Amino acid sequence: MSELKTEEEQIEAFKEWWKKNGTVLIIAIAVFVGGYFGWQAWQKSQADHLSEASALYQNMIEAASDLSKEDNQKTVSFIAKQLTDDYNDTGYAMFGQLFSARLDAQKGNYDAAITDLKTAIKQTEDASFIAIANLRITKLQIQKEEYSAALATLEQVTSSEFLAQRQELAGDIYLKQGKRDEARVAYQKASEALGDNVKHPLLDIKLKDLVKG
Q1: Are 193 and 185 in contact (CB under 8 A)?
Q2: CB 92 within 8 A of CB 57
Q3: Among positive and negative, which fits the CA dihedral 191, 144, 137, 69?
Q4: Is the CB of residue 155 less than 8 Å from the CB of residue 138?
Q5: 153, exposed or middle or buried, with CB in 10 Å at 0-12, 13-18, 19+?
Q6: Dihedrals phi, psi of 63, to nearest 5 degrees
Q7: Which long-range contacts (C-beta less than 8 Å, at least 24 apart) are formed by 55-64?
Q8: What's the first-to-final CA gap in the chain, in angstroms?
Q9: How confident is the model at residue 43 (pLDDT cuts 50, 70, 90)?
Q10: Do the Cβ atoms of 63 and 75 come closer than 8 Å?
Q11: What value does the CA radius of gyration of the chain take, rounded to a whole number of Å?
């Protein structure tokens, strides 16, 4: 009888505990299960989102292979804007800005191209990408004959892997400013940065012209 009583007491104790804690337990289980499946759904959603951005990017690359066609230009512009507006949480958005800048520059809209590139820079912390964007901004500023601004932009390109491009552009700017000695020094540094095994015929011509002068 004592054992039965003990079991009865245990059952009653469990009933009492369930009254107090059963609802909380059910909610906790529901939250856990819901959270698990919610996490799975979120992961799938993110994967689909990235896949969509990748597909758009591939379509943009194909269209950009021949920008002499107006239809391709429109396609690139449309997709670039879509990547920027709807997929700005992916790395593809900044590439969309690069292609927007390329189109704007091709049309002579240098200010718009510079804005595109600066927007792309804000969307990433990738040092190489930022350097490439700043080099392109520099070229556009040279086109606009904003030489002081171009030199200031070049100052932001500090990575050694872009030293040759930076120095060559600096030489171009100095040459347009009539500073032939500074241009020659910059071109020489660009040549040294490339090394003996890398051929750059145009840079060699620039150097030879200044040495002859």
Answers
A1: no
A2: yes
A3: negative
A4: no
A5: buried
A6: -65, -35
A7: 56/82, 56/83, 56/87, 56/92, 57/83, 57/92, 57/95, 57/96, 60/95, 60/96, 60/99, 64/99, 64/102
A8: 117
A9: low
A10: yes
A11: 31
Question: What residue type is 132 in one-letter code?
Answer: I
Q: What are the distances in angstroms from CA 16 to CA 10, 25, 77?
A: 10, 14, 68
Residues in CB range of 154: below 8 A, 6 or more apart: 134, 135, 138, 166, 169, 170, 173
Q: CA angle at residue 121 from 112 to 98, to 5 degrees? A: 55
Model pTM? Answer: 0.70
Structure tokens at 97: 């800005």
Residues 6+ apart with CB under 8 A from 96: 57, 60, 79, 80, 81, 82, 83, 84, 87
Q: Is pLDDT at 142 greater than 70 in this prediction?
A: yes
Of the pLDDT bands very low, low, confident and very high (cuts 50, 70, 90), residue 5 is very low
- Give the three-state DSSP class for 116: helix
Tokens of 26: 């059910």
Whole-number percent of the chain with pLDDT over 90: 34
Instruction: Please state the separation of Cα 100 from the chain's center in Å.
Output: 13
DSSP code, position 162: G
Instruction: Tell me the C-alpha distance between 111 and 195, whole Å.
Output: 35
